[in-house]
Sequence to fold (665 residues):
Amino acid sequence: MTNGVLVDIPKCVGCDSCSVACKLWNELEWDPQEKSKTATDRAKEPNNGLWPEEWTSINRYDLQKDGSSVWRYVKTQCFHCEDPACASSCFSKAFQKLPEGPVIYDQSLCVGCRYCMMACPFDILRYEWKKAIPGVRKCQMCATRVANDMEPACTSVCPTGAIIFGDREQLLAEAKKRIKENGYVDRVFGEREAGGTSWLYISDTPFEQMRFRTDVTTMPLPSYTEGYMKATPFVGVGWAAILAGLYIFNNKGKEPLD
Amino acid sequence: MELVTTFVNRTGEKLSSVKWKFRMTPMRWVFTGIAAVAIAVILVRFVLGLGATTNLNDQWPWGLWISFDVLLGVALAGGGYGVALIVYVLRRDKFYPIARSAMLTSLLGYIVVVLGLLIEVGQWHNFWRPYVSWGHASVLFEVFWCISCYTLIQVLEFCEVATEKVFKGAHKYLKKAMPVMLIIGITLPTLHQSSLGQLFYLFVGKVNPLWWSAFLPLFFLLSSFFVGAGMIIIESTLAGKALNHKIDISVLRGLARISGGAMILYLILKITDMVVRGTFANVFAFDLPSILFLSELVLGVIIPIIIAFSSLSSTRKGLIWFAVLNVSGVILNRFDVLFTGMGKHINQYGGHYFPAWTEVIVSLGLVSIACLAYLFIAENFNILEHKGSKVDDYTVTEKLPYATTAK
Fold:
């Protein structure tokens, strides 16, 4: 069974409890530069308010709905793709998708090339630029809690039930039920995006107005380079054989070059 | 500056010594100066980290060092495997006189790339991880293995040259291994040159459709091959001035034509790509990406093709124009794929990157170190005048009063 989290955007009141729980559980440092920003500021930041020590952030959008203005709070963090681009892009296997759902990172294997950061379809990964020995930082979906049948820190403290943890298939069914009942936008963001993600979002306001990458591919990203990598050894050996043949043929009966 | 190292042979009686020389000219002092500043910046980078020495950020985790030192460095060093293919495998003996200098440039290019990478990655002490922790689904895994193995092969190939002067006992073994090293040394770059293009194929929907294509590996491979001629012409012109050595114009023209052939293939593929993906509207939108894309093709490919196959390439001046346009086209292409290609996506919510002076000076410093190394090797080993094996004439056998002396 693979786990997921369902985010019901209209239910979120922007209390930031999830961010605080995340900081406490993961022992992330408090940085005044990060925390002086309001939820509205963070929604306009290039980094969505995600910093190396800030794995999740609440972004506030002032939107129009049925002629009246509404506030919508969007919790951002790693989407935990079903088939993650970061894991396939890593040449030293520092990223791993756990069967329980979380995509985790191990700094001891990381070389620091940052190909994962470029590859991430949602531009979620952050780097410790200020450190001499830096690592990549992102939400780990509280992998140690999830492995021990607990829910992630953030969902455990949500007072409104805007984020709920559970089996991904069941959450998906629940999401579709809520879309019908509440007249939401007919799309579960994360169902097929980037080949499917563990985190699922539903909303009553258009996703593209809340910085969701709605045009993202629905193919799993690793599938774009899979065939190439599988063919490479054969192309290499074949090409070397052709070169060896040409070398022998062209050097026949000729003075060798030195 | 001249240095004589003397080896006392086993009996301790007869002395043989090897001369090393390096003449400092104003230009070489400039190179040394830039290299010194660069080394200082590199030390600061290792102590304080990437944030203190670069403008890289979470939106732009790749910047000048990746695009210039790695993408471009590898592409411009492509002349080495190209010439090895033409001379040793296809036996076009006409190009033999440039083989050694082209392969030396390539070797130094790759050493710069490897050094650049060590400075660029965050946890440089972990560089060996992919050798044991195989992330074989990653295109970068292939690039990493091929670049590191190919650099080693090139060092061994150079040892074949170096052992004409020092450690002569090893020469005959290296010479025997040359055919194998040459074949591996052409296979590996073919693989990683194309893989560098394939790296960007993973950034689905983030790269401007002008540069994002299933043909990326072929584009990168072909352009690294055809830029070889341009690099050799520029290099031989500069080295010719510095070291008083001129390459026969017919050799350079022949190279330009081989390169021109590859460029025609490249152009056909580019046009096919536009037709298949229907990007003509983007190509002729005449916004910044479209103008850069068109200049890549018109100035960097079409005009060089015209020069190569017309009487314009019969003069040195024409060939230099060919080379400068061709090389600039490839430089523009590599920068475009990363910066112009990804700029719109990355900057959509206010991302920003412009290289810091420290990034620029490190890149220039690495190139300066390569230039100094080239000049030193070209002056002390049989590189430029190489036409065939000859008894080396470096050894002076005379009685010297001391073992090592600097004049």
User: Anything to note?
Assistant: Chain A touches chain B through 67 residues (CB under 8 Å). Chain A is about 35% helix and 15% strand. The mean pLDDT of chain A is 94.
